[in-house]
Amino acid sequence: MKIALLPNLGKKNAPQCTQEIITCLHTFGMQVWMRAADRQQGFAADCWQTDFYEMLAGCDAAIAVGGDGTIIHEARHAAIAGLPILGVNTGRLGFVAGLETNELHLLSGLADGTYTVENRILLRAQFETAAGVQQVDALNDVVIARGALSKIIDFQVGLNGTEMAHYRADGLIFATPTGSTAYSLSAGGPVLDPVMRSFLLTPICPHSLTSRPVVFSEDACLTVRTFMNADAKTYLTVDGDSAIPLQQGQQVSVSRSPYTAQLIKLKQNHFYKILNQKLGSI
Known about the structure:
Elements: E1 2-7, H1 14-27, E2 31-35, E3 47-49, H2 52-57, E4 61-66, H3 68-81, E5 85-89, E6 99-100, H4 108-112, E7 116-129, E8 132-138, E9 141-146, E10 153-159, E11 162-169, E12 171-175, H5 183-186, E13 198-204, E14 214-217, E15 221-227, E16 234-238, E17 244-246, E18 251-265, H6 271-279
Parallel strand pairs: 1-2, 1-4, 2-3, 4-5, 5-6
Antiparallel strand pairs: 7-8, 7-18, 9-12, 9-16, 10-11, 10-15, 12-13, 13-14, 15-18, 16-17
């Protein structure tokens, strides 16, 4: 079995954890493929690849080492390659991680096939640019929100080609079930079981007594236009990555992505047990 090992070596304890994972994988008879950029760290990988997607195409599974941000980032790439991925947590919460650093002995389950794969939907945001239509996929959330100035924004939201609602708020969060426990939860959104085939819209600080989060089916297509004062700015962010500036009245469509993230589970603890462990009582 070939494993693409994807560590975020800037994370504390990640280099040491990466070496321990390599040792475990070799012990269990698996090969380790890594990015050529990580070669200078002296890891005992079996294969070094300069082409990232070629490396993923040649492997049977991937392991991401880092915090939630790292695991989510690499899971998006793995989804495009159709590859199952396991997260090993060296960050704080590690909500989407499958293993903690003291559980690496469970990697034997990859070799003997005693693991399950949990499918998670992704969202796709599409918008027009000077170069044409641009699209980005998200495992957690797509956020459209104001910039540094405290200026409220008007949002016109449509559903499947029909006008649905108008919001005055600091922003809107479009979250997958996986992302329902992230930014959306902090903004008052509900917790969705991560294997549900749906997504939700959560307004950020709405100027209304009645604005509430809304859950949509996986087949829904939402469109958003933003309207703000001339000196205000609005940005689109995907899974907390770099912000993309939006123009006055620019339309963004949000729908389910054709890709699916396949998260490897080596333990049998259920979602709500993890929720209680990571975030406290529900």
